[in-house]
Amino acid sequence: MKDFSEIKTRLRIRQQELMQRIAQISAQVRHEDTPLPSDFEDQATERENEEVMDALGSAARRELDQINRTLQHIDDGDYGACRDCGREINAARLEALPFASRCIECADRAEN
C-alpha cells in the first residue's frame, strides 16, 4: 500500500475547515447571534441572503462527503485505484484532485 499520509493530512485539515464553515452557516441561517430584522424589506433581503448561505452550506456538505469517502478509501487500502479499470491513478492527479476515483483515461470516457 502506498503512503498517502500527506493527502490524508490535507484532507483532514480541509474536513475540519468545512465542519466549522457548516456550523457557522447553520448558526447564521438560524439567527443564533442576531434576530431577524423587524422591517419587512430587511427581512426579505435577509431571506435572500439565507438562500445564498444555504447554497454555500450545501456545497460544503457535498465536499465534506467527498472527503469522508476518500478518507475511508485510504483507510480501507483501496485509495488510488481506478474504480472502472482498476489501474493505479497517477500520483499527480491524486495530488491535484484527491477525490479522483478514476484514472484520467476512464474519466475522459465517462465524460463523453
Highlighted features:
single chain; 112 residues; mainly alpha; 2 domains
Describe this structure in words.
This protein folds into two domains: 1-79; 80-112, no CATH class. Helices cover 68% and strands 0% of the residues. It is mostly helical and 112 residues long. The model has no long low-confidence stretch (mean pLDDT 88). It has helices at residues 5-29, 40-76, 91-96, 104-111. The longest helix has 37 residues, at 40-76. The two termini are 32 Å apart.
Principal-axes shape call: elongated
What is the helix content? 55-70%
Rounded to the nearest angstrom, the radius of gyration is 19 Å
Succession of helices and strands: HHHH
The overall pLDDT average reads 88
Number of domains: 2
- Secondary structure class reads mainly alpha
Largest β sheet strand count, sense and barrel closure: none
User: How many strands in all?
Assistant: 0
Taking the alpha carbons of the first and last residues, their distance comes to 32 Å
Low-confidence spans = none
How much strand?
under 5%
Question: How does the SSE layout of this entry go?
Answer:
Elements (H helix, E strand, L loop, with lengths): L4 H25 L10 H37 L14 H6 L7 H8 L1
Helix pairs in contact: 1-2
Summarize the structure.
By secondary structure, the chain is mainly α. It is built from four helices and no strands.
